[in-house]
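Sample entry was shown:
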Amino acid sequence: MTVRPTRPTPSFAPLQTARLQLRPFQAGDLGPLRTLIGSLSERGHIDEEPRALLRAGAAEKGRRPRANGSYELAVIARRSGRLIGTCELIRGPRRSGEIGYLLGPRHWGRGYATEIVHALVTFGLDGLGLRSLHATVALQNGRSRRVLHKCGFVWDALLQRKGRAPGRALTAERYVYAPSAPTPCRGAGRTR
């Protein structure tokens, strides 16, 4: 897959895939993002408020995000120009990074998540020079586990961490990028 930067900005050149553009949030993105997050919350797919809301809110007020090594991006369908999701790449210590994404339920099962993950992996490894990438997936999210496996990630660990809400613990699985791994990930055969 070829990922081409389009129209450079001082801090980030948007990524473009065959069907998507991954770009910084702009004025006008906050409303569609809130709608998308509301639809995911109703289905029980979001345990915490996404950081993307902060970025979209800042863009709505005309503020530029600070360059802090974190890229929260709007996922735009190139054909319609509509926001269909959000994704992020967060730099960590020792040239590592974490990726994540959310897609509106109407856009599941169309291969968009795979395009997003490939674009973030390419940007992280080739664009930022990271040496390792990982992603965290909720236990009940079989679709994302399959996407990560398809994109070269393998199961690494079962995690339990505190949520942002007091007294709330979140259990998830961590996957690491290992494109040459000989065995499939642990959760590849599970669904839901």
Notes: The beta strands are 4-5, 15-16, 20-24, 70-77, 83-91, 96-103, 132-138, 153-162, 169-177.
